[in-house]
Design a protein that fits this description.
The protein contains 14 helices and eleven strands. By secondary structure, it is of the alpha/beta class. The relative contact order is 0.14.
């Protein structure tokens, strides 16, 4: 089975417009809706950043079928893991079988402005992440949890409202170490498209498999990828739409430690349109578009969540549902 979802871009749209788009996505046959969990956006001018957990509750009440989750939330700095466990326990009770906790190690852009912390190195971020997910799982399984970790503590903590089957946790990874951890522990793996093909083929997916094997787990993990797509009948429009997300084209060393949206906007503004489009599948031909998506499906990704960069999301959703989704399902689903 292949799942085809919609990425609700909370950095680009306010909560009400985003809700309209996501309700429309369900009505058009998309299988899932994943929302970013940012405190701040990739840019300052014309930006948005609605609170994902409140927004997911409204989306669940306004829809009946789509899977819903965060892509991704950081359960280590702005949130204490016990609060994340409580929030997703509640969502899981209200919308059983439809909620996913997508989690990652975080970005300074979101965590530093909200907390004033000194942004730690990857070793500490990953250690916090592992400890946070361990605590969250214990809170979903046990009662009166007293936890003494290196970074987090609880005392006789109980999550009273939680679904009988715990909410699935999907782990986002951009490198080998976290990908292997996802394979060892998670129900799903998340990454994003538009990077060098060998990253997926030689690093990420093999390490997910290695993690599964190391843990002796059967291979039921959901391999999910956020697909950066700009599809339109007008080629110039499809290319120009990517400029809103110019920051994605910055190299990791240019943006990893940037915590100010104004600075991120300044750096991204220097990039020409030809550069901003590199991370995206830009196409006007549905057959060509499906062919370019094929390589990801054949690598093993079975859950494609489509992120479109343009301001007219309704236009994209309808056009994609008409021209691309049926072709993908006919070919791969």
């Amino acid at each position: 089975m292949i799942r085809l979802g919609y990425k609700a871009s909370a950095e680009q749209f306010g909560p009400n417009k985003l809700l309209e788009f996501s309700i429309l996505a369900e009505s058009l046959g998309y299988d899932s809706v994943f929302v970013s969990d940012h405190f701040q956006s990739w840019k300052h001018t014309g930006a948005h950043s609605p609170f994902s957990l409140a927004w997911l509750g409204v989306l669940g009440a306004k829809t009946s079928r789509v899977l819903m989750g965060t892509s991704v939330l950081t359960p280590t700095f702005r949130y204490h893991p016990s609060v994340v466990a409580q929030a997703f326990g509640t969502l899981g009770c209200m919308f059983p079988g439809r909620i996913i906790l997508g989690a990652g190690t975080g970005e300074s852009l979101n965590e530093v402005p909200a907390t004033g912390i000194q942004w730690p190195e990857f070793k500490e971020r990953f250690a916090r992440f592992r400890e946070a997910l361990t605590l969250i799982r214990r809170l979903w399984r046990e009662q009166r949890v007293s936890f003494e970790g290196e970074y987090y503590r609880t005392r006789h903590a109980t999550i009273y409202d939680r679904p009988e089957t715990p909410v699935p946790i999907y782990v986002a990874a951009a490198g080998a170490v976290v990908a292997k951890y996802a394979g060892r522990t998670a129900e799903g793996f998340i990454c994003t498209s538009g990077k060098a093909p060998e990253l997926y083929r030689d690093t990420l997916l093999p390490n997910v498999t290695a993690g599964l094997q190391a843990a002796g787990r059967s291979d039921g993990i959901d391999r999910m990828i956020e697909m950066k797509v700009s599809f339109d009948a007008d080629a110039a429009r499809a290319t120009e739409d990517t400029r809103h997300w110019a920051a994605l084209a910055l190299a990791p060393e240019q943006k990893t430690s940037v915590e100010d949206p104004l600075e991120m906007e300044r750096l991204a503004g220097k990039l020409p349109a030809s550069e901003t489009a590199k991370r995206w599948i830009v196409s006007t031909d549905p057959e060509e578009h499906v062919e370019r998506l094929r390589e990801y499906v054949e690598l093993g990704f079975r859950h494609l969540v489509f992120h479109a960069p343009g301001p007219d999301q309704e236009r994209f959703l309808r056009l994609y549902a008409k021209e691309v989704l049926p072709r993908l399902r006919a070919r791969f689903g």
